[in-house]
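Assess the record.
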Amino acid sequence: MIQEQQPQRVRFNLLGPLEGWADGVRLRLGGARQERVLATLLLEPGKLVPVSRLVAAAWDEEPPATAAHQVRKTVADLRRRIPGGSGILITDGPGYHVCLADDQLDLIEFGQQVGAARTASAQGRPADVLRALRRALSLWRGPVLSGAGGPVVEAAAAVLEERRLAAAEQFYALRLDRGEASDLVGGLRELVARSPLHEALRGQLMLALYRCGRQAEALEEYARIRELLVEELGIDPGPQLSGMYQAILRDSPEIAAPPALAAPPAPPVPTAEPPCTLPYDLTDFTGRDTQLRELLDRSTKAGERGARLIAIDGMGGSGKTALAVHAAHRMAAAFPDGQLQIDLRGFTPGEPPVAPGNALDILLRALGVPGDRIPDDTGGRTALWRSALLGKRLLLLLDNAVDTAQILPLLPPSGDSLVLITSRARLVALDGAHWISLGVMPTEESARLVTETLGVPRVAAEPAAAVELAQLCDHLPLALRIATARLRNRPRWTVQYLVDRLRDETHRLDELSSGERSVAATLRLSYQAMDDASRTAFRLLALHPGAFLDAHSAAALLGTDVRGAEDVLELLLDAHLVQQPEIGLYSFHDLVGSFARSLRSPATRPRDEAAVESLLDYYLSATERACRVLFPGRERRPTGIAAAAAELPLLADADSAQRWFDREHGGLLAAVALSDRTGHDRYTVCLTRNIVFHLNARGHFDEFFDLGRPALAAARRLQDLDLLAVTLTNMGVACWKLGRFDEGIEVAEEARAVAVRRGDRRIEAHGESTVGLLMTMLGRFSEALPHLERAIAIDRELGATRSEAETLTTLSTLYEQWGRYAEAAAAARRALELAHGLGPQSNGIMALTDLAFAQLGLGHDAQAHASLERALAGCDDASSPGDVALALALSAEVCRRLDRTAQSAEHAARALALVRTSGTPVRQAKVENLVAGLERHRGDHAAALALHAHAHKVASAINYRPEEAFALEGMAHAARALGDHAAAREHRRRADVLFAFMDVPEDHRRR
């Protein structure tokens, strides 16, 4: 008898180099074309892949005329190579599909494990989530086809890579939540190395390092990603990563490991097949993971005195009904006596809300109560409804409620029942309800929704356009579904084509319309539900140019007091027409803002223009008050604008003034842009003058410069020489901070000339000081000295203490770089005396640092250490990051000289991290040269050379000759120590040329 041969078990591994296995033996799949064709089919298991797509996958360039025929031959060859290949590679109309069991392809297993993790997460089982994610991630062995799959495969693989990174991010987040740290660093480093621009993973690595006690390494990680983002994308890290960086710098308790969360109790076991009037559940329901998990958790908690109430509120189009229906289907088995749903039509176009009596009639009939037994009056129906539900476990979904009065008669009496309520407004009078508010979707969830509704192939073909599509839809579920539905119904449209149409904000709401579904119509229902005064306020508040507004700026726009404005904002918050990112701040969703701006018309223009001017009045007066608190001694200058009538924030002390400036930072920049755009030139100039004081103190020098340009143009248009002189003076400071020294000298000289013409001695002194400062940066010491001396003389004559102190620190810097240490020390001591007389906001950090430089030059190391300890003790959140970094770097050098090795290393690491993320080019060059000197003394000449070389690159780019020369001098020492004597000679020759130009004595050419 011949024994029947068992079919060989075939398995494919796609998540890495493509592998095929049959009974433990690896298959020979052929060449690159066979691998690409097979990989393209495996990327969509069970789905038809047309020959045309396989052709595109197989050839990078223009395919030959016989490409389709060659693909068919390739498939035939694969069938021969794969045991049972004819049953795996199936001809399907115009193409092929693969037929595999779930355990025959790692991609399927990956999806199953991620799905299992999602389910476990929704059910509150974190240990099972970790187990599933660990299994999912273990399936990955590298990039699909090792990154050699060609454009088509790579596009699809990019989507898979995003899924892998999302799973990894969740996996490590859970482990961090469990208190793990040291075991995570290696894995996170590998992920960050493969995805260096992924901010979330980088943040997790920083947190893991920090919790291991490796703070300096955590700060270095931030410096690396910031440099990458700036170089490759021209952007700074996002607020979440920046917040992590600040928390690590402050040793904030907020980033300590949280306690583990207890898992929710399991839902009751069903006892009977329930009657059900729930709408159908979306087969492609996607996202809202956190809210769904919370909803399912709350559903298991029994009510104490009545039915459990869970109310879901959110703006129109946020997916309240979809979430409630999806959750109701998930928990249906726990309510064996029925699952009922009713649309109360609180916000239905053209229809009034359902009266409670009518709703009770519908519900009673759904329970099977005969019509002749249902009373005619609402009270009788309420009593019958409640008696019918006694002792029952019922799930009731009250959808689209308008107010509390509509709901109360419908509530079951028993704590065994559960009521889900959806409403656009938060029904604050509904006692005992647990509220779940829906905003827009998180970015990752909206990306999943686009992929789910549009399909993996189209998203893979245009991944960047798909991301922008979600952004333009404001991550609002209704908008996303309308947009993807339009694309599905228009197969010739590319995603990019729709994105281009949506970029036009004036027509965006028109584009987000499909049949009876429309974002604008949905928002209009909420708008029309308000009274006339609230509608007007809604339109006026959208005039605010910033990302958010508070009650004070709202009061300015509305022409009311702060309390009245707050009441309006809270009303709009309850209606979900604004959101509240934090207490006291309000903002519009993008699409809601677009809708509000669409309400403007010629008839509203006079009121709108008056509101804008009132807002600018408010910001000018508020910034003036904040500057008086933060910058004592600042000269008060007339603006030509009357003081604002609006109520101003208190700002009683420096802390509150600084917090206000920091919080309003973006709004203030937007207000200047608004004033410039609307032709309010005087506001543009005067508001800019106040804001740049804050920007300068916080190290935002690019914004300082960018803000100064329109202000300077506005001052010239006004032909107001006083305002022109002030604006030119500030632009000179911005040029210094950014290393634009020659441009700065031109601006400062013009400011000085205008001041002389007007007889403005203060501006004249400031112009002289700025010219002297910039010439010092250029190494033109002998030319700079008389300018600085004239500035000091004028300031002393005028009693301008702050200005004199600032110019004296510049003079100290000049003398120190010139090798005249005694004179440098004298100038710094005088600056310090003046600073002390200006109060706590002028703590003399730079005067102390300059004094320490001079003391080191004189060989007084212990005195320098004492000066720097005082400087660092005076540093706080308001201190310039570049100034703090310089004090730290110099302190590191002093600690080295005093044999305090550990403290020296710590100061050096903090200085580099701070200056690379927040410093100016001027500060960065100087700090890197100082730290390089430390590395050289430690014997790490390669590290010293790298730091000096980068300092030289920064300094030479802005013609900062003193640090350029010191960098070359250091490079010469490091190169000689490394055995590169030719390079050392060339570096020394170039350094000597610069030192000679600056007239620095030979014995003072080394730090």
Observations:
- Residues 281 and 326 are 6 Å apart (CA to CA).
